[in-house]
Amino acid sequence: MYDLIIIGAGPAGLSAAVSAWQADLKSILLIERDRELGGILNQCIHNGFGLHLFKEELTGPEFAGRLIEMLKDTDVEVMSDTMVLDINGDHEVSLINTHGYQKVQGKAVILAMGCRERTRGAIAIPGSRGSGVYTAGTAQRYINMDGYLVGKRVVILGSGDIGLIMARRMTLEGAKVLACVEINPYSSGLQRNIKQCLEDFDIPLYLSHTITDIKGYPRVSQVVVSRVDEKFRPIPGTEMTFDCDTVLLSIGLIPENELSRAAGIVIDPRTKGPLVWENMETSIDGVFACGNVVQVHDLADNVAAEARKAAVAAARYVQDNQPHTGELTVKTAGNVTYTVPQRIHLPVTDKLVEISFRTNRVFGQCAVEVVDKDGNAVCRFKREYITPGELQKIAVPGKLLEGREEYLTVKVTEEQK
Questions:
Q1: Main-chain dihedrals φ then ψ at residue 278, nearest 5 degrees
Q2: Is the pLDDT of residue 338 over 70?
Q3: For a tag site, which of 35, 143, 266, 317 has the least CB within 10 Å?
Q4: What's the pTM value of the predicted model, to 2 decimals?
Q5: DSSP alpha helices (H): ranges in 98-154?
């Protein structure tokens, strides 16, 4: 019997393992399906990691390396090259590796499986099925880890951060990136990546556009790009044709939750991740989740911070499980698409309750408001701007939640100039 079992050894799992050990859990098992620890960080050779956690700029492998070195200072047991098949409500985990099939049990479990990329089939792009169409992450792995240049004339669909970073990476490797095409009227990536990866290399970004045809067989030879209206319908007569041999898809990430669903964990239809309380506990008692399996993050530093929160809560659960007497539901309004957490335990035991969220439109000067079920203001946070591509966070003082009932609502309102 382990105190804690952690599934996934990317930035979330590694950080959770180290933090749980520091919180005095001494029997911890970390399971990773790959042969090496680090997860997606191993193929992210660009810098920009670690500014918050380590106070210096690191590449993805360097960031992972720091966490792995911290892990070596613990007695955490690691099972790599191991696939988890099932989790049940008794915290029993079924797994398989080169030693065969086995079951292990923990007093608590943390889910840190990360996410996967949305593919061409998910958005049904019409046209030929020639080769040369890759998800951006797959192309990143081919170039950075295997040494293969996937193409020489490239069009990127979607402006997620991986796609933006790959625009720069392909350019540096000698390819010509013809355009980055985004169906929304705003970019879904960080502003710094738009500047550093597109504008600095004179790569055009076409907002409110999408690919309406892919031509060429056995390999892509052309793509047709069209402007879309407010309902994302292609506008006839706006077509642009690009001669290219490669299409990279950066069209969103999906939290990896097959294990969660099979275990009966409640999934939020908006985030596609487990519904969680403020301590990152899921709907199954003693099962916690963190990182991209809960919601897609912009920064690995934020993933690590969320993992620490889950680890501390798991340690608290194992060491001194105190029942809660009630809860608050967190609702959304005013162009806020979701929040994490979706529930808050009562009574509130933490000094601050952190709530992260995204919006579905760009805001200039605005305010994030939290109100109770009677419409009374709980707290208010001013913002200079908010974009859908950047995860937003607010920290609500726990004492302000005392005496609140049923639910809170998080909303964003424009400020009068």
A1: -65, -20
A2: yes
A3: 35
A4: 0.94
A5: 120-123, 136-141
pLDDT higher than threshold 90 for residue 89: no
CB 159 within 8 A of CB 126: no
Nearest to 13 by CA among 115, 94, 117, 114: 114
Q: What are phi and psi of 133, to 5 degrees?
A: -105, 120
pLDDT tens-digit profile of 238-292? 999 999 999 999 999 999 999 999 999 999 999 999 999 999 999 999 999 999 9
Residues in Cβ contact with 370 at an 8 Å cutoff, skipping those fewer than 6 apart: 355, 377, 378, 379, 380, 394, 396, 408, 409, 410
Which residues are CB-neighbours of 184 under 8 A, at least 6 positions away? 207, 208, 388
Residues present in the chain in total: 417
Mean residue pLDDT of the chain comes to: 95
Q: Structure tokens of 60?
A: 């993805």
Are 1-117+253-322 and 119-251 the same fold in CATH? Answer: yes
**What average pLDDT does this structure show over 311-325?**
88
CATH class of 323-417: mainly beta
Mean pLDDT confidence for 350-379: 94
Assess if CATH 3.40.50.300 describes domain 119-251: no
Location of structure tokens 């998080």: 410
Q: Which CATH class is domain 1-117+253-322?
A: alpha beta
Backbone angles phi, psi at 309, to 5 degrees: -60, -45
Reference 28, options 70, 77, 74, 69; nearest CA is: 77
Number of H helices, E strands in the chain: 8, 27
Amino acid at position 7, single letter: I
Backbone angles phi, psi at 303, to 5 degrees: -60, -45
CA 47 to CA 62: how far, in whole Å? Answer: 9
Cis (ω within 30 of 0) for the bond into 397? no
- Return all residues near 230 (Cβ < 8 A) that are at least 6 apart: none
- For residue 120, pLDDT beyond 80: yes
The one-character DSSP state at 220 is -
Q: Residue 281 is which amino acid?
A: E
Edge-first strand order for the sheet with 176-182 is: 133-135, 246-249, 153-157, 176-182, 205-207
- pLDDT band at 15, cuts 50/70/90? very high
Quote the Cα angle for 166-67-59, to 5°. Answer: 25
Tokens 């670690």 appear where? 50
